[in-house]
From TrEMBL:
Lineage of the species this protein comes from: Bacteria, Bacillati, Actinomycetota, Actinomycetes, Kitasatosporales
Cited InterPro entries: AB_hydrolase_1, AB_hydrolase_fold, AB_hydrolase_sf
GO molecular function: hydrolase activity
Keywords, sorted A to Z: Hydrolase
Transmembrane stretches, start-end: none
Signal peptide feature range: none
Protein's name in the database: Alpha/beta fold hydrolase
């Protein structure tokens, strides 16, 4: 098992992010991008299993969990994507393998499209090809618009629907819920509206880096058709289908994700160009 250490990095005045780090200094740098109203904790099952070949970093994004909430917000995927680039800069990470989970794939894809020189490879776990076209889109938009503090636990629990809890463990789910409920209603609202208003297709079309899709065939949120759509837009991308796995493979099958991630990262040329301050 790998030791998971938690640090804080200052990106700018009024914006500091906690991040978890695991693995080994000589390993390929891998940055993990969490989904809507989540935190770095969502990747804890993977981080504590990180092999010596990888060195993982998982930041909590602005407004989420214990991260700072700067004046003026900035919780749309494009804002969060720019924070990720600053995160790479502050930690001295020149080129990395970038891993998005669920809606975190949107900002990961934006970074890969805008800054291909910084991304040696992109891994998308349960990625949507679009959010605005989903049956739940308008319901989520309306519900988010009505949110007030404190955010109702039942609202947060809705985002776990369809996740096979028996494969994960109730204790971990409780931790994830507790982390998400640290996030104020403003962030839940603005992040959801930002996701629904983002042209995911356009972001995907700009990706030119090697890309691996991982999708569970029991995914209750994102259909197989979305994976085919991404494959058609991202040149050279490939898909791994996990049978019997739902929307969050990094919870349900962390060992398998790490094996596939390690194999993918091993084929990517990744270097550190400078040291962190």
């Amino acid at each position: 098992m790998s030791t998971v250490a938690v640090h804080t990095v200052k990106l700018s005045e009024g914006l500091s992010l906690p991040y978890a780090e695991a693995g080994y200094p000589g390993g390929v740098p891998v940055v993990l991008v969490h989904s809507y109203a989540d935190t770095w904790w969502t990747f804890e099952p993977m981080l504590r299993r990180f092999p010596s070949a990888l060195h993982g970093y998982a930041p909590s994004q602005r407004g989420h969990g214990d991260a700072d909430r700067p004046p003026g917000g900035g919780y749309a995927p494009h804002d969060l994507a720019e924070d990720l680039v600053l995160f790479l800069d502050r930690l001295g990470l020149d080129r990395v393998v970038l891993v998005g989970g669920s809606s975190g794939c949107v900002q990961a894809g934006i970074v890969a499209g805008r800054y291909p020189d910084r991304i040696a490879g992109l891994v998308l776990l349960g990625s949507p090809a679009s959010l605005a076209d989903k049956p739940f889109a308008e319901e989520f938009r309306e519900a988010a618009a009505r949110l007030t503090d404190p955010v109702d636990r039942a609202y947060a629990e809705r985002f776990l629907a369809g996740v096979p809890v028996e494969k994960v463990g109730r204790g971990f789910i409780e931790t994830v819920l507790s982390e998400s409920l640290k996030t104020p209603a403003e962030v839940w609202r603005e992040a959801m509206l930002g996701l629904l208003d983002t042209d995911v297709d356009a972001a995907l079309a700009g990706i030119l880096v090697p890309t691996l899709l991982i999708w569970g065939d029991r995914d209750a949120f994102v259909p197989r058709a979305d994976q085919e759509r991404i494959l058609s837009r991202v040149f050279g991308s490939r898909l791994l289908v996990y049978e019997g796995v739902g929307h969050v493979p990094y919870w349900e099958a962390p060992d398998r994700v790490l094996r596939d991630l390690t194999a993918f990262a091993a084929s990517r040329p990744v270097v550190r160009a400078f040291e962190r301050d």
